[in-house]
Amino acid sequence: MKVTLSVIKADIGGFVGHSDSHPQCLARAEKHLAEAKKKGMLIDYHITKCGDDLQLIMTHQKGINNKVIHEMAWDTFVSCTEVAKELKLYGAGQDLLCDAFSGNVKGMGPGVAEMEIDERPSEPIIIFMADKTSSGAWNLPLYKMFADPFNTIGLVIAENMHDGFSFEVHDVKESKGITFNTPEEIYDLLVFIGAPSRFAIKSVSTRKGEIAAVSSTQKLALLAGATWAKMIRFVLSALRVHSRRWVKYLNPSLSPIW
After folding, report:
1. Residues 99 and 219 both lie in one domain
2. What beta strand segments (E) does 153-193 contain?
3. From CA 85, how far away is CA 98, in angstroms rounded?
4. Are residues 105 and 112 in contact, defined by beta-carbon separation less than 8 angstroms?
5. How many helices (H) and strands (E) does the chain have?
């Protein structure tokens, strides 16, 4: 069964300052997504926060970039912004750059990371979230997870990983993309992802095309133009676990150079 995982986030108001999200905003989001699940739009969902970012984690069967799902997320953020304004929260609705939904939340302010998968009997997925960071914040962790055999021994001994992975890298300033195959193009890959403020890993796939990880690469300062004072605000990443050894996916965060 094909299942789509959509992780969509927006800063709709900070509590206090940029440090946290207000419980009433989370409660309003919970109400909207519970109604969407009841109507059959969603399989399941989870509401959480990262700093002052409201995070909507949703599973459904409508595919990526689906207008219905994106519009529902947008309406949820708009509704939560109304709560934020009533509470006089800091920067209420500051990630909502447009007045009305136009078919897809990409380019409208919210951060988006989505993947469509053929669900396995056991399908653990890890979602990393960060705020106040660069678009390429996950470059090193994703590289170590899927290209460094000293971190992920499965790249050497596991048949389903030995062929390596394909890394899609985006230039967030020029809106261009390029794909590198590892291990043979590791050096070329490192040239780009070593500059995380401009180049960000958008997705990682097996050499057979099966999605392994995705991340958001939106950059608000570029979306809104030179008049928008707010710089890089968010980054999301979702990855499928390809081994029972969860620790290897968390090892990069223990590296002193990250």
Report:
1. no
2. 165-171, 176-181
3. 17
4. yes
5. 7, 10
HSE on the CB side for 222, CA within 13 Å?
15
Helix axes 186-193, 139-147, angle to 10 degrees: 170
CA distance to 69, 84, 95, 104, 249, per residue, from 72 (Å): 5, 18, 16, 10, 32
* Angle, CA 97 vertex, CA 40 and CA 87 arms, to 5°: 80
SS3 content of the chain, % helix, strand, coil (to 5): 25, 30, 45
Q: At which of 81, 97, 119 does a domain end?
A: 119
Per the document, the length of the chain is 258
pLDDT for the residue 71: 94
User: How high is the mean pLDDT in each 10-residue block of the chain (258 residues)?
Assistant: 92 85 95 97 95 93 95 94 92 78 75 90 87 85 93 89 95 91 97 93 92 80 41 54 55 53
Give the pLDDT score at 186. Answer: 98
DSSP three-state, residue 82: helix
User: What would the two tokens of residue 87 be?
Assistant: 């509470």
43 contacts 105 by C-beta, under 8 angstroms: no
Whether this model's pTM surpasses 0.90: no
Number of structural domains found in the chain: 2
- CB distance 121 to 40 below 8 Å: no
Beta strands at 165-171 and 234-240: parallel, antiparallel or unpaired: unpaired
Question: In terms of domains, do 108 and 157 share one?
Answer: no
Residues 145 and 252 in one domain: yes
Contacting residues for 191 by C-beta, under 8 A, at least 6 apart: none
The DSSP code for 108 is S
